[in-house]
Design goal:
168 residues, mainly alpha, 3-stranded antiparallel β-sheet, 6% strand
Length: 168
């Protein structure tokens, strides 16, 4: 009995020391860490999108069309997707053409409107990824998410300013 209690106490102490050690040696967030997290999470989404015959860029463009309050022109969608992905406008135009070809968007005069199939696809992807998203993000303290959100917003703002300076 005492050896079991001693083992349990030693195990608890070791776990506590490991946790304390990990907390004090946790890596600082940097561009590499943000990139690795982005691509890891994006890879999960891309696997689901592939099952639906879509690419990441197509999903971003379709979401922009589906969530718009009013119908968007092709140029409006290109501008919005470019702001999100920093992608080449020619590539975004090609993506919009692909979505029209897949009958997820339809031309309506100067506007591109989502079809019923386009509107139905996004909730299907969200439903499929929801359990994975919950496992990835679940259990992270709200204060940590808030801090990360503030840092990432600042990094995005600064990177956008640098990109604007490089392209001016």
């Amino acid at each position: 009995m005492t050896s079991t209690a001693a083992t349990a106490t030693a195990t608890a102490a070791a776990a506590s020391a490991t946790t304390a050690s990990t907390a004090s040696t946790a890596p600082l967030a940097d561009a590499r860490a943000v990139g690795l997290a982005h691509y890891a999470a994006r890879s999960v989404l891309e696997r689901v999108l592939a099952r639906h015959g879509m690419t990441f860029q197509q999903q971003i463009a379709l979401r922009a069309a589906v969530t718009a309050d009013t119908p968007r022109t092709r140029d409006d969608l290109v501008t919005q997707v470019r702001a999100s992905l920093k992608a080449d406008p020619a590539d975004i135009h090609a993506t919009l053409d692909e979505l029209v070809g897949k009958q997820l968007l339809v031309a309506d005069g100067p506007h591109l409107r989502p079809t019923d199939a386009g509107r139905e696809l996004l909730p299907a992807v969200v439903a499929e990824t929801a359990p994975m998203t919950a496992r990835i993000w679940g259990g992270i303290p709200v204060e940590d998410l808030a801090a990360a959100g503030r840092v990432l917003a600042l990094v995005t703002e600064r990177a956008d300013a640098e990109l604007a300076a490089l392209t001016a």
